[in-house]
Specification:
503 residues, alpha+beta, 4-stranded mixed beta sheet, 4-stranded antiparallel beta sheet, 18 helices, 15% strand
């Protein structure tokens, strides 16, 4: 689980009353100035009072000593079945002025007109956006329908990790920045597959002592996800809302499916375990992050363990993997001996036995026609302002602090995510940290995800994964799998659109 799943679902609600000089106008974009001597009450909706004061409250209180801070628990909204609807209800009922949102909440609430357009106040205060990674601002605007409705102090993205010792041992040239997915999969094939996994079923190709050319992120939940990722990097779409058509039975999609199925069947690519995610059975564990906001626990799967223990030559992953290998933040690791079950005991320690040290990263694969456009960037924390709030000057003052240069500097070494301000890149001990900063926004895939009927993408992926598994097992051909995905996918889309019209 990414750090964003924990921190991104937190809510910050700010309600300020009795300020003497807030002034300003919503229409003009002039929100006035919050003076150090202003008095009032600041209501904060946050998951944990101690964590809030550690991360934000103590310093903000020092900046405005006459403010009274009240922390309100938002645990129910964060854990709701529909976090977007729960957040919208919280805004309507409690009218907070500022909010800390997940990327998904941010996009949905901006679309519904719930958030305040920051473009004018950014210009008014000359707030420094030039030191931000441009892709972060581009993603915020893309998710905001072209406007800037929030600021994100951090981001996460993926890179291609590689084990230098394994590449040296088998005489394979190191991967490089800007490689295509085809190039990476060809590299993966050059490592020997152990235990006769080639041609085996999807279950048998996952062997505890196998050597893999490429393992996948812990977030990979099914065998279709890699296919979708590669296709979207090529600019391929599998469904279109306007035409009401699924377009998967094409030469381009078929080529992607064939290459991935071949990788799964040969064992050069670790196949995700059905229903378990993270690349199949084996050892998993948890990662304890010790940061300014308190301790946080992240779960990781067996593919992460395989790379760390030297069973994988390459791995696609985000910064969680480097954190687990003791780089980038304070951490400790506990591993579960059997299957990564959260109920398992596990031994706490600095890391798994035999953790590799001779590794580096290059940029995540992309398509030569859409260089560096991968869609791997995520925003775990987005600070925004309630468009109908009455105390916008206070909300904006807090956004400036939470996204400011000083806080970015002090928190850069304690967060498992990456600072949006490029001056504070994580130190990888001489390794290629720039690999995480190359990702460009895939606006086409974002638009598809936002316009397709609710729930359709998940239903399509589940169906497609079932057909891909049959192709890997040899019970049907790739051609048959593609045609089945096309036919069944069209049925799913037609039903989803019909249900939406009836609602």
């Amino acid at each position: 689980m990414r750090m964003g799943v924990l921190t991104g679902t937190l809510v910050l609600a700010v309600a300020l009353t009795g300020c003497s000089s807030s002034g300003g106008s919503k229409e003009s974009g002039d929100l006035g100035i919050l003076d150090r001597d202003d008095k009032g009450t600041l209501k904060i909706g946050y998951f944990d009072e101690q964590a809030f004061y550690s991360q934000y409250g103590n310093a903000f209180q020092a900046m405005f000593p006459n403010m009274t801070l009240e922390v309100i628990s938002t645990e129910a909204a964060a854990n709701a079945e529909d976090p977007v609807a729960a957040m919208e209800k919280l805004i309507d009922e409690q009218q907070p002025d500022a909010l800390l949102l997940t990327e998904e909440q941010y996009a949905a609430l901006a679309k519904k007109g719930k958030l305040y357009d920051l473009d004018a106040v950014v210009k008014q205060d000359n707030f420094d956006l030039d030191s931000y990674l441009p892709s972060v601002i581009e993603l915020l605007k893309a998710r905001g329908g072209g406007k800037l409705y929030g600021l994100s102090p951090s981001f996460s993205s993926q890179a291609l990790y590689y084990n230098k010792d394994l590449f040296d041992k088998y005489g394979v040239p190191y991967p490089t920045n800007g490689m295509s997915w085809e190039d990476v999969m060809q590299l993966a094939k050059r490592f020997p597959v152990k235990k006769g996994t080639a041609g085996a079923s999807l279950e048998k190709v996952r062997s505890d002592d196998a050597l893999y050319g490429l393992t996948l992120p812990v977030q990979t939940t099914d065998s279709f996800e890699l296919i979708r990722t590669i296709g979207e990097a090529k600019g391929l779409l599998y469904a279109d809302r306007d035409s009401k058509l699924v377009t998967f039975d094409t030469a381009e999609w078929k080529a992607v499916v064939q290459s991935v199925v071949d990788g799964y069947k040969s064992g050069s690519i670790s196949a995700p375990a059905t229903g378990n995610g993270g690349g199949g059975g084996g050892m998993g564990g948890k990662l304890m992050i010790k940061g300014m906001g308190g301790n946080s626990t992240l779960s990781f799967g067996p593919d992460s363990m395989r790379f760390m223990s030297g069973q994988s030559a390459m791995s696609i992953d985000d910064t969680t993997l480097m954190n687990m290998m003791g780089v980038g933040t304070n951490m400790s690791v506990s591993t579960n001996a059997k299957g990564g079950d959260d109920k398992g005991g596990g031994e706490a320690g600095p890391g798994p036995m035999g953790m590799i040290d001779n590794w580096d990263v290059v940029s995540i694969p992309s398509d030569p026609a859409m260089k560096d456009v991968t869609g791997s960037m995520k925003l775990p924390n987005v600070f925004a302002i309630n468009a109908s709030g009455d105390n916008l000057s206070a909300a904006w003052e807090f956004l400036k602090y939470a996204n400011g240069d000083q806080l970015a500097k002090t928190s850069a070494k304690s967060s498992p995510t990456l600072s949006s301000r490029v001056a504070y890149k994580t130190d990888l001990g001489g390794r290629n940290i720039d690999a995480f900063y190359t990702d460009k926004v895939n606006e086409q895939s974002l638009l598809q995800a936002e316009t397709l009927p609710a729930g359709f993408a998940n239903s399509f992926a589940e169906m497609a994964a079932g057909q891909i598994n049959k192709a890997v097992d040899g019970t049907q051909t790739v051609d048959e799998a593609v045609k089945a995905i096309q036919s069944q996918g069209q049925n799913l889309l037609t039903k989803a659109l019909a249900s939406e019209e009836q609602a």
